[in-house]
Structure formats: structure tokens, C-alpha cells
Amino acid sequence: MAKSAYEYVKQFELADKLLPGCWIVVRVDGKGFTRFCEDHGFEKPNDERALALMDDAALAVMAAFPDVRLAFGESDEYSFVLAPSSKLYGRRSSKLVSLITSCFTGSYIRRWPERLPGTPLRSTPLFDGRAVCYPTLKILRDYLAWRQVDTHINNLYNTCFWALVKAGSSQTAAHERLKGTLSSHKNEMLFSEFGINYNHVPERFRKGSTLVRQLKRIKVERPDGTEGARERWETAVLHCDIIGDAFWRDNPHLTED
Known about the structure:
Layout: E1 23-31, H1 33-39, H2 48-64, E2 68-74, E3 77-82, H3 93-115, E4 126-134, H4 137-166, H5 171-178, H6 183-194, H7 203-207, E5 209-221, E6 227-238, H8 246-250
Antiparallel strand pairs: 1-3, 1-4, 2-3, 2-5, 5-6
Helix pairs in contact: 2-3, 4-5, 4-6
Family: Belongs to the tRNA(His) guanylyltransferase family.
Protein name: tRNA(His) guanylyltransferase
Cofactor: Mg(2+)
């Protein structure tokens, strides 16, 4: 291809290749979603339709980018994990962040009418993205544990807060009552005042969503009419503990290179 006199401008582009040999997490996070949720009348403290829509968008990312090993989502955020060996787009941060974020956002908008059929999309949902490198599996697991603990803390608070508001308290009064309270106090309040056993709140709300590819055995019909079976990878949406070792023992392929 012939060179142009203007090609010198390429020297101003900055190299943004992420560190080799590290786990990459691309985290997608909603911008201004408190207002967005209010504008669209999302149920409080959790709207299962909206959370399922987030899962749909994350599933689309997993389908478009096979290098994504695992995804974890809560509220208006999702974290996508790529293995240390991944060479996707030369590990360029700008490429990974922009493509995963745009895929997620576009899929969120595309699936909106299916998950919220009676709710017109009144404003454009916006998501920002960032890429962070984690040098060891332990640190990656600690990152994911941090996000799942955050899910529990936020959901416990919000469950208490909206129970108080729906019972007639003002939002200011509800915030004041919960200020400085421990988890044990919140659990006791929910049970004694509202008859809510927090352990019976759906795991989707307490533990977030974990997307992982699992090997499934499916039935197939052979040409001679007899039944057989074959295996294929399918992405599952789980609502489970990912802090302990059991999840990682059950999914050893996540940490294989």
C-alpha cells in the first residue's frame, strides 16, 4: 500500500498493551444508573427483570469473545476475566475495553424489549469500562471475592432500607436508622419487624451472577435411529458462592492454561 505524507500522525498513538502473564479483568459499570432505574420504574430493592437483562448482555459478551473464561455480575456492573495466556487483540487495553463494553451495551439495548416489554427505553443506558491486570490466581480470586462480598453488603443494606421505606419511613429516616449498624443488627431487624429471613432471599440477589462455561452431555439421534450422546460447552448462569474452594474445584478448566 502506498504511503501517505500524513502517516506521521501514527507516531502519536500510545502503546497500551497489557502486561503479559497476568489475568485480565475488564469491568463494565453503569453510569448514572440510580437515575436510570428511577426513570424506568425498577422494582426496589431488586428488579429481577433488570438483573436478567444484565445477564443476557454478559452472555452475549461470552458468546462473542471465547477468550473470556468467567464473568461475575451484580447490580449494574459485570467483570469479565481473560486468562494470562490470552492474546486477544494483542492484549491491547483500548481494544479489549472498547469492544467488550460496546458489545455489552449494544446487547443490553437489544434485549431490553424482551426483558421489560411494557417499559419503553426512555434514555440511553451508558456503561464505562476499564481493564486491570492481576498477576496471580490468588489475587484474581480475591478480586472476585471482593465483588461478591460487595454484593452481599449492598443487598443486605438495600433490603433493610426499602423495607423501612415501604413501611412508611422517609428515605432520610431509613438512612439514619441504618447508619453504623452491623450485619447482625440488619438481619435481626428484617426478621423481627418484617418477617424476612435474609437467608431465604433469592441467591441471585445475595450472591450475584456467575457465568461459566460447563461441559454438558446432550442426547443425539444417530442415523440408524438409535440414541447416543455427545458433549459440548454451554455457558451457565449460576448464583453461587465463588469465594470458597468448592466452585474452583468444580470448574478446574477456569485456571488451566
